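Example record for the data management plan.
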Amino acid sequence: MNRVEVNLGAGALLALCLAGCGTSDQAAEQTLPFHVAVIPVDVDEMGAGLPIEHGGETELSLDFVETEVTQKLVDAASRPFAKTTLLSKPNRGLSKEENYEVWVAEAAESGADLILDATLLFDRKIHTGLNGSFWVNLPFFFIGGPFNWFVNDRSYYFDARLEARVFSAHGIGEVRPPDRRTRVTTLEAQVSEARLDFLDRGDGLGAFALSVVVPSGWVSAESSSVTGKLQDAIAADIGTNLARNAQTDVRQLLRWDRVHFYPEGVGLAADERALEGWFVLELDGNVARLDLRYRTNLEPYRDYDWGDGNRVSWGRQPRKRHYWFHIPIDGEEVRWIQLEVRQAELDATRRTFTYLVDA
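Corresponding structural encoding:
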């Protein structure tokens, strides 16, 4: 079950300590080399949705605000990707295709490599019930009422998922997003449970006074503050899950099957401030030449001369040509280097990659 916990105060410190034990691998993950332009999230109530199998029904209901969900997604995407840009809100007076024309133009102006188009699907229903932490929390209640305010002893169950399509911002030749031929990959994330402590649920002095004589898990199960806390937590967690799934799907993002090349081993040089690495072209009957241009901080592109820094590997099928590049970084103000690669000047094969060089 996909779960998010919301906790303030002492509970937050405990959650942070526990989370720290499992984040070393995430911290070591490389930033994805893309500038992503994010279309404002479309929020869609999906009616009956999936059955909620846990807890009892409540009078609470979810009601997301598109701007808030969008900002959570942009914040989450800024962690794995080199750069993010939020595109303009859709014009309700335009068709979907016309709005996409605006977004594609904005993405091009911002220098984006990819366009992310996400929809949040959710059911308004919320169920709730005590979870296993309630029994762990009972000793804190007997020690002294307020001590049990900090444990996430009540769960809320719902159905919410984020579906996203990732497009090449440049399209393929004259074909532009949202044509399915320009789709690089799809991503999905789901959250179905959130746990709240009493500080997040508590509603008014009466509830806090009652929690001194009654375990807090039984108090304020459906307070007026619950819905807002849940929506905030769901939007943040589902955006984080989607960003994490993008990390998992990095091979598809880097090796789009519409072209026959991909970056490999790209990173900052060890002995000087420079970006270096390989581009690999799968020959196998395809055009056996790559062209590279680069720019820094959205300045004009400059051609790169591969020189003699490429070789062909014959031992595997398909045969591959490896192109080595080394680009010195001039100026402390440079934050990003964008690489534009094509197969023999064919615009239909154009891809760009944005590398963060000043974290």
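Summary line stored alongside the record: The radius of gyration is 25 Å.
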